[in-house]
Amino acid sequence: MDTRKITVLVVDDDFFNVQVLQAILENAGYNIIPVYGGYEAMEKITSSNIDLILLDLVMPGIDGYQVLDFIKENPEKAHIPVICVSALSEFEHITKAMNKGAADYITKPFINSVLLEKVQKLIPDKE
Asked: Phi and psi dihedrals of 73, rounded to 5?
């Protein structure tokens, strides 16, 4: 599969976290759209062609759960797989995200190879 055709939206309010995820995914050949909050994420989701979303849950203003609701309530975007990437490791947070439609959940800190494996498993076949 040609990963250059795959666009991943990386959403986190922490600049360093976005930079780390962007570097890992770009090194694997993915096209990355970095955003730094829920409002900006919803704008990009609406205006861009996105194949997969990596979404932090704890952000000021619009949090990741609200972004998940926004995606899943939009018939044109509900198909986009979302992997929550969060420091929240408690069962209740993971369950809440999955119940809202997240395709997977990764806790921070994460192992790069595990992240890439989960991304690869969820990307649509664009060959």
From this structure: -85, -5
CATH number, domain of 15, equals 3.40.50.2300
> 28: burial class by Cβ within 10 Å (0-12, 13-18, 19+)?
middle
Domain-embedded: residue 122:
no
**Amino acid, res. 99:** N
Confidence of residue 5 (pLDDT cuts 50, 70, 90): confident
Boundaries of domain holding 44 = 3-103
Angle at 16 between CA 72 and CA 18, to 5 degrees: 30
For the chain, the domain total comes to: 1
What pTM did the predictor assign? 0.94
Residue at 117 is within a domain = no
**What is the rounded CA–CA span in Å between residue 84 and residue 23?**
18
Contact present, 85 and 96 (Cβ < 8 Å): no
Residue 127 lies in a domain: no
Block residue for tokens 């921070």: 108
| 7 neighbors 47 (Cβ within 8 angstroms) | no
